[in-house]
């Protein structure tokens, strides 16, 4: 199991019999599921046998033995007990948030900037700044045009849960490109010391490689051409530097 997927706050209450041969205990579990839901369970064990429990997901007490059936039925009819358990569930929710803050370290996002077909006709171009796999949820994604914040024609998704404790968010900018301008996606997150800037480069890396390869080819061709010209000149009669007498 992913270490971030499971968190359990345990409270143990032990009670021993006089003889010391048998013991019972109550167990309160405040548990976070992988979908970030809280499950609160209060269980009573006697000699390792589960007698009864309150399950916050079901919202009631249930009995696991015949002997406790009647007690449990009465508990389920008792609004005070049910109300108290719902209160405990709320406490569990708050405590878990606090515990998460202590145990879960921020995770740095991975950012990708790409251009897509514009969805509307007002602007011919659209960029997506996709920010993946960050924790915690709080994040700020801003667009800058030549260093100035752009607020119009910007849309964004919510912070979407990946289901593994990490989040992703996608911000869209619709714009009309201007020659020589610089468009930047700025990401602010607690995992960064300073805001991180991702500049939009209209020429993708693969294209750059092609250009680099093309340039190298061209230079190589030029080198052969120069060598060729020199050799040609050297071998041209009358222009030879070596006397032939
Ligand atoms: C609590 O109740 C829910 C819904 O009824 C169930 O899916 C879950 O397994 C129960 N948990 C335990 C520990 O019994
Ligand atoms: C507790 O609630 C669950 C789901 O709502 C239900 O199936 C179950 O019969 C209830 N148990 C009791 C003892 O009321």
From TrEMBL:
SMART domains for the chain: IGc1, MHC_II_beta
PROSITE patterns, per the entry: IG_LIKE
Main location as per UniProt: membrane
Membrane association type: Single-pass type I membrane protein
Localization in the cell: Membrane
Domain of life assignment: Eukaryota
Signal sequence, start to end: 1-21
Keywords, alphabetical: Disulfide bond, Glycoprotein, Membrane, Signal, Transmembrane, Transmembrane helix
Pfam families reported for this sequence: C1-set, MHC_II_beta
Membrane-spanning residues: 211-232
GO biological process: antigen processing and presentation; immune response
Gene Ontology CC entries for this record: MHC class II protein complex
Residue intervals of the Ig-like domain: 109-189
PANTHER family reported in the protein's UniProt record: HLA CLASS II HISTOCOMPATIBILITY ANTIGEN, DRB1 BETA CHAIN, MHC CLASS II-RELATED
Protein name: H-2 class II histocompatibility antigen, I-A beta chain
Source species: Channa argus
Taxonomic placement: Eukaryota, Metazoa, Chordata, Craniata, Vertebrata
């Amino acid at each position: 199991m992913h270490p971030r997927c499971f968190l359990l706050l345990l409270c143990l209450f032990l009670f021993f019999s006089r003889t010391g041969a048998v013991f019972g205990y109550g167990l309160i579990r405040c548990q976070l599921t992988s979908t970030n839901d809280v499950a609160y369970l209060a269980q009573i064990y006697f000699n390792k046998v589960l007698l009864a429990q309150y399950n916050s997901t079901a919202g009631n007490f249930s009995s696991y033995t015949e002997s406790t059936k009647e007690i449990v039925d009465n508990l389920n009819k008792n609004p005070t007990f049910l109300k108290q358990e719902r209160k405990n569930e709320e406490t569990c929710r708050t405590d878990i948030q606090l515990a998460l803050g202590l145990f879960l370290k921020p995770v740095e996002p991975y950012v990708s900037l790409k251009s897509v077909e514009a969805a509307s006709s007002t602007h011919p171009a659209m960029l997506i700044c996709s920010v993946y796999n960050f924790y915690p949820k709080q994040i700020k994604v801003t667009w800058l045009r030549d260093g100035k914040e752009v607020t119009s024609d910007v849309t964004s998704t919510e912070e979407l849960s990946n289901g593994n404790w990490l989040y992703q968010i996608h911000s869209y900018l619709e714009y009309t490109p201007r020659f020589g301008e610089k468009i930047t996606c700025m990401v602010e997150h607690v995992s960064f010391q300073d805001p991180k800037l991702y500049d939009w480069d209209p020429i993708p890396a693969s294209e750059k490689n092609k250009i680099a390869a093309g340039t190298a080819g061209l230079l190589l061709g030029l080198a052969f051409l120069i060598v060729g010209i020199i050799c040609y000149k050297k071998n041209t009669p009358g222009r030879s530097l070596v006397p032939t007498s």
